Each structure stands twice: as structure tokens, then as C-alpha cells.
Amino acid sequence: MVFVRIHSLRVYPPVSIGLDARLVTTSTGQTLWSSDETFDAGDADVARAARDYFRAHHTGPAELGDPQADMRSPSRFTRYAAQAVMETLPAR
Q1: Does residue 91 sit within a domain?
Q2: For residue 84, what pLDDT is reported?
Q3: Would you call 43 helix, strand, or coil by DSSP?
Q4: 5, 16, 19, 77: which could join 10 in a potential S-S bond, CB 3.0 to 4.6 Å?
Q5: Domain membership flag for residue 71
């Protein structure tokens, strides 16, 4: 099972979200993988990675009309953060 907890959230620009995620076995509860990251749109490296994600994963013309909208929207920015965390899962 994967458990995800939001440990910090700033909804006003620059948006920031902290995620604590764990993959545990259902039989023993042993942690197989964990991640504890904070994604802050005010950090230049995070902002660059988020913009790259949004360019590759836009869902409609409204998102393309204002490239900064994704960086101001907590729900959109959370999509990026969740994807970034899940990409750290080890291969099977």
C-alpha cells in the first residue's frame, strides 16, 4: 500500500507543498520505499522542473494560455509534486 501525507501547504504564491509518502507491505507493514519532500515554486530548480512537467502534461488550452497559472494553482502544482514523488519509486 502507498500512504501519502501532506505535511505542509502554502496556497498563496509561491505555492509550496510537502509530501511524505511510504510504500509498505500489507503482510508485515515493512516500509519498502519512502519519500519526504517539499516542493516550493519559489525555488528556481523546482519551478523549472514544474514548468517542464506542465509543458509535457497540459490538459487543455486554458493551461497553455497562461503558463504561470500552473505555478499559482495549488491543485495544479500538487499534480506536479505527486508525479515527482512517484517517479522516485524503485522499478519492480
Answers
A1: no
A2: 97
A3: coil
A4: 16
A5: yes
In a domain, 92, yes or no: no
Say how far apart CA 44 and CA 42 lie, in whole Å: 6
Query: Considering its fold, how many domains does the chain have in total?
Result: 1
| Dihedral in degrees, nearest 10, Cα atoms 20, 69, 64, 66 | -160
- Cα 85 to Cα 2, 28, 42, 62, distances in angstroms: 12, 23, 18, 26
User: DSSP H helical segments within 1-92, as ranges?
Assistant: 44-56, 61-65, 69-72, 74-86
Point out which residues pair with 5 in neighbouring strands: 20
Structural domain boundaries, residue 38 = 2-86
Residue 23 one-letter amino acid: L
Give me the residues of the chain with pLDDT under 70, please: 59-65, 67
Residue 70 and residue 58: Cα distance in Å, rounded?
A: 9
The pLDDT assigned to 80 comes to: 95
